[in-house]
Design a protein that fits this description.
The complex is a heterodimer of chains A (393) and B (86). By secondary structure, chain A is of the alpha+beta class. Chain A folds into three domains: 70 residues; 268 residues, BirA Bifunctional Protein, domain 2 (2-Layer Sandwich), CATH 3.30.930.10; 31 residues, no CATH class. Helix content of chain A is 35%, strand content 24%. Chain A contains 13 helices and 17 strands. In chain A, the strands form five sheets. An eight-stranded mixed β-sheet of chain A has the order 4-14-15-16-17-13-12-7, sandwiched between helices. With 86 residues, chain B is mainly alpha-helical. Chain B is built from four helices and no strands. In chain B, helix 1 crosses helix 2. Classes of the chains: A alpha+beta (393), B mainly alpha (86).
Chain lengths: 393, 86
C-alpha cells in the first residue's frame, strides 16, 4: 500500500538528498520512500507491513524532519574549486554485470564483497593513494576497526550523526547467559534473535571514520611539529533505506591523509592535498567536480552545523558523475576542522594553542564505482594511465 | 526594528551580551571573531542566528565569516534593514 505525506513545506532542490536521507529514520519498515517528482512538499512511501497507525506516525515525523531541516536552510555559497573531465563513454550501471562475472558479491544490505577485477582495481588505487600520501609527507598508521564510545563522545559524534552509528557488543561474562545464548540464539528474518539482557553494555562502536584514532593518540600532547599521517581502514555508517550498492555501503573502506598542527600548516596541507588529488583524478580519467559541501548531520543539528561548515569553507567534496543515474557520487573530501579536535583532545600545536586539523579522505569502493561507471568494466576501454598499469588478476 | 543606527547598535550589543556574554559597548568593544574566548567560530554561528532573529534579516552563508567585528555586524545589519525598507 502506498502512503503520501504532505510536508507542509517545500523542500529546496539543494536539500532534497539530505532531507530524503533523514526521512528513512522516522519509523521502522519504510520502503519505497521518494519525494514527489512534481511537488517539493510531498513524499510517498510504503511500509513493509502496512499499518495506518504507523503510517500516520511516519507522516507526523516526516513533517517534523522536513520543517526542522528546511527552516534553517539558506542557499549555500556553492563553489566549484576544480573540474576534471575524463573521456569515459560508459552509460550502464556496472553492478549487475560485475555480480554476474563474480567480481562483486552481495552479502546483505550495505555489505558487498569485491571479486578479482574490482579487487585488483582497489589494489591499484591504494597504490596510487600510497604515493599521494607520500607526496603529502605523511607517515603510515593502522587503527582498530573498533572505536571507543568515549572517543566518539569527545568528537560529539553522538549528537551530530546518531542515525548512522553501528554499535558493537559482546556477551556478558556470565556463564549462564552465554549458555542460554548458545542454546537459543537464532536468526529470524535475517536478524539475530536472542535475549538482549545477555549483551554487555557497549564499550565500543564500529568506527565511522579513520582519523579519530589519530587525534586520540595525540591527546594531551604538545606537538613539536605538524603531524602528517595516513591510514586506511574499514568504516561503518548505517544509511537505512539509502544503502545502495558500492555507492552507499554500510561497511566501506576509507583512505585518509591527516594533518595536525597550526592553522596555516593544515590549510596548506589541505590545499596541497586538493592539488595532488586532482592529478589522481585525471590519471584515472574521472569526470568530477570538487565543490563546497556539508556533512549529512542529524536533523536536530543539521541547520546549524551545515551553516557552520558552509560559512567557514570547512568541507570540499569531489563528486563524480555516475552516467547511469542523475545524482553525482562523492568519492573524496577535503576537510578542515579548525581547532575542534585540538580542543576536544587537548592537543597543542607548536605555537602552544589548540591544534588545527585537516584531512583528505577517499571512499575506496565509491572511487572504483565511479571509475567503472564512467569507463565500463572492459579493461580495453579504460584510460591508458590505468590500463597500462593493470594486470589481469 | 528601524534602521536607525542607534537602535541597531543597541540591538547588536544586546545580542552580543545575550549570546556571548560580552559588553561590546564597554570593556569588549574591540573584540573580533577569534580574538576573544567567547567568540570562536562555533559561537559565531549562534551569534549570527541571534542577530538574524533579532532584526528579521538573513545573511547568505558566504557573508557570515566576514561578520568578524562588532562594526562589521552593525554595518551588515544596517545594510540589510535599508535594503528591506526600499
Amino acid at each position: 500500500m502506498r502512503y503520501t505525506a504532505e510536508l507542509g513545506i517545500g523542500v529546496p532542490e539543494a536539500l532534497r538528498k539530505d532531507v530524503l536521507g533523514k526521512l528513512w529514520y522516522v519509523v521502522e519498515g519504510l520502503t519505497g520512500l521518494e519525494l514527489d517528482a512534481a511537488r517539493a512538499d510531498r513524499v510517498h512511501f510504503e511500509l513493509a507491513t502496512p499499518d495506518d497507525g504507523v503510517a500516520a506516525q511516519a507522516r507526523e515525523r516526516m513533517i517534523e524532519v522536513a520543517k526542522r531541516m528546511v527552516a534553517g536552510y539558506r542557499p549555500a555559497s556553492y563553489r566549484v574549486l576544480a573540474e576534471c573531465r575524463g573521456a569515459g563513454g560508459a552509460t550502464d550501471d556496472p553492478h549487475a554485470g560485475l555480480v554476474a562475472s563474480g567480481d562483486l558479491h552481495h552479502f546483505g544490505r550495505g555489505r558487498w564483497g569485491l571479486g578479482p577485477v574490482v579487487g585488483a582495481l582497489v589494489e591499484l588505487l591504494e597504490s596510487d593513494l600510497h604515493s599521494l600520501g607520500l607526496d603529502l609527507g605523511t607517515v603510515p598508521h593502522r587503527f582498530p576497526t573498533l572505536i571507543g564510545a568515549d572517543t566518539l563522545a569527545s568528537c560529539k559524534y553522538f549528537e551530530s550523526f546518531p542515525h548512522s552509528l553501528t554499535i558493537a557488543s559482546h556477551l556478558r561474562e556470565d556463564l549462564g547467559a552465554i549458555q542460554t545464548f548458545a542454546r537459543e540464539a537464532r536468526v529470524v528474518d535475517g536478524h539475530l534473535s536472542a535475549d538482549a539482557s545477555a549483551f554487555a553494555p557497549s564499550e565500543c562502536l564500529l568506527s565511522p571514520a579513520v582519523c579519530f584514532h589519530l587525534y586520540q593518540s595525540l591527546a594531551g600532547s604538545r606537538l613539536e611539529a605538524t603531524v602528517r599521517a595516513r591510514a586506511t581502514g574499514k568504516c561503518f555508517r548505517y544509511e537505512s533505506g539509502g544503502l545502495d550498492g558500492l555507492g552507499r555501503l554500510w561497511d566501506f573502506t576509507m583512505s585518509e591523509c591527516v594533518a595536525v598542527g597550526t592553522q596555516a600548516e593544515v590549510l596548506a596541507f589541505r590545499e596541497r592535498g586538493l592539488e595532488r588529488s586532482r592529478a589522481l583524478f585525471e590519471a584515472w580519467g574521472l569526470t568530477l567536480d570538487v565543490h563546497t559541501a556539508t556533512d549529512p548531520f542529524f536533523v536536530d543539528v543539521f541547520a546549524k552545523q551545515a551553516l557552520f561548515q558552509a560559512a567557514f569553507d570547512l568541507k570540499f567534496e569531489a563528486s563524480a558523475t555516475l552516467p547511469y543515474r542523475k545524482e553525482p557520487l562523492a568519492i573524496g573530501s577535503f576537510n578542515y576542522h579548525q581547532d575542534f579536535f585540538g580542543r576536544a583532545f587537548d592537543i597543542q600545536s607548536a605555537e602552544g594553542r589548540p591544534a588545527h586539523t585537516a584531512c583528505v579522505a577517499f571512499g575506496i569502493e565509491r572511487f572504483v564505482l565511479a571509475f567503472l561507471a564512467q569507463h565500463g568494466t572492459a579493461p580495453g576501454r579504460w584510460p591508458a594511465s590505468v590500463r597500462d598499469r593493470w594486470s589481469e588478476p | 526594528m528601524s534602521a536607525d543606527r542607534g537602535d541597531v547598535a543597541a540591538g547588536v550589543a544586546e545580542v552580543f551580551d545575550r549570546i556571548l556574554h560580552v559588553d561590546v559597548r564597554g570593556a569588549d568593544a574591540g573584540i573580533r571573531l577569534g580574538s576573544h574566548p567567547a567568540w570562536d567560530s562555533v559561537a559565531h554561528i549562534d551569534l549570527v542566528l541571534g542577530i538574524e532573529a533579532a532584526f528579521g534579516v538573513s545573511f547568505p552563508s558566504y557573508q557570515i565569516a566576514e561578520l568578524a567585528s562588532v562594526e562589521q555586524v552593525q554595518r551588515a545589519v544596517e545594510q540589510k534593514l535599508a535594503a528591506k525598507a526600499v
